[in-house]
Design brief:
By secondary structure, the chain is α+β, with helices and mostly antiparallel strands. The protein contains ten helices and 13 strands. Helices cover 41% and strands 25% of the residues.
């Protein structure tokens, strides 16, 4: 009986495998009990936005709560930064929002509300930068699949009652620290290699006039390899040992299906540069996007295949399917329709391949 329960979960995991899959931690973890102050802030938030909202939590960094209570305008008094999303929005709508609240005579009230880039909060930092005395609200966000990350620096103006972005950039890693020992923080931004552009590090400072000064530095091609190595090193062996049986089944089935899809189906789908595109798909299916890019960089160092450009266009159509699968798979399994969900996915996949074959899109 236990095996029968494990098999549908394993099969579904194989069908849903890929580096871009991931669900929000807000859907997996029950929210912690709120403090009295947080309850007051939440009440003020819902008074302004309505009750149809869900709090969002940063995934890493110093601030891991949906409620961040800090002085973000340098006036000596604390404001509250709250991340949330509205319920019932479509997949093509911006879901993540930022609300700034302040207090008068001990009572919290909403000051401003704005949309944020992305769907998930990756990291939040609050700091001065360089010679400027302005307090910066630095927010790293990502799409729901975490394949693309973007950092935005916001400036809160209490008098205007508004929060405005004045810096936005994609990134692989961000941090705020004193890099040159002058007792002033700099903003460090690392980017992985993509679309033929090398990996790089960028350091930003703010001068007294509020202008950013950038110090770029190109990194070696090994930077992407380090990202892959760190990703593998983050695997917890204790968890692997605890679930060794289902993981072994998943490994074997996943390997077989990936081999078939990449080197048999892929060879017929890709009319040009089939091997390079299939190798990229192999890395994406079996690990992370960084692994796919690392393999592609080996087989196609000059980016002649245009694989990443093709993937960027194709992902516009892949994303809604991924979001639908991530949303409905847990519901199907918890309701006892695991095998039916797997069958539906298999039929849909076979139907897509059959349609492609009928149109002559597959090479003989």
């Amino acid at each position: 009986m236990k095996l029968l329960r494990i098999l549908p979960l394993t099969a579904a995991a194989v069908l849903l495998t890929g580096c871009t899959f991931g669900t929000s931690i807000d859907n997996l973890l029950a929210p912690p009990k709120q403090s009295i102050e947080q309850e007051q802030i939440y009440s003020a938030l819902t008074d302004a936005t309505g009750s149809g909202i869900r709090l969002k939590y940063p995934r890493s960094g110093k601030y891991l709560s949906a409620f961040i209570i800090e002085d973000i305008d340098g006036d000596g008094n604390s404001e509250a930064v709250v991340f949330y999303e509205r319920n019932g929005l479509g997949v093509d709508e911006i879901t993540l929002r930022i609300n700034i609240l302040d207090q008068d005579d001990g009572h919290w009230h909403s000051v401003c509300d704005t949309a944020a880039a992305g769907a998930e909060v990756e990291k939040v930092m609050i700091s001065k930068l360089g010679d400027n005395e302005r307090v910066n609200l630095i927010i790293g966000s990502s799409l729901i699949n975490r394949s693309e990350k973007n950092v935005t620096v916001y400036n809160y103006d209490q008098e205007a009652g508004d929060i405005k972005p004045d810096f936005s950039e994609s990134y692989s890693f961000i941090d705020v620290t004193d890099l040159d020992g002058d007792d002033k923080n700099e903003f460090l931004l690392l980017k992985g290699s993509s679309n033929g552009a090398p990996a790089g590090a960028e350091v930003y400072q703010l001068d007294e006039a509020g202008k950013y000064h950038q110090s770029p530095c190109e990194l070696s091609g090994a930077f992407t390899d380090y990202l892959v190595a760190f990703g593998v090193a983050s695997i917890k062996l204790e968890i692997v040992g605890r679930y060794i049986v289902p993981l072994t089944i998943l490994l074997v089935l996943g390997l077989v299906l990936t081999l078939i899809y990449v080197f048999i189906v892929g060879a017929r789908i890709h009319r040009t540069y089939a091997f390079e595109k299939s190798v990229f798909t192999w890395g994406w299916f079996t690990g992370t996007m960084a692994m796919g890019i690392a393999l592609l960089r080996i087989t196609d160092p000059d980016s002649k295949s245009g694989t990443l450009d093709d993937y960027a266009i194709a992902y516009l159509y892949i994303a809604p399917v991924e979001i639908a699968l991530v949303s409905f798979a847990p519901l199907a399994f918890t309701a006892g329709f695991g095998w039916l969900f797997i069958l539906a996915c298999a039929v849909a996949g076979a139907g897509i391949l059959g349609f492609a074959a009928s149109k002559g899109w597959l090479k003989k």
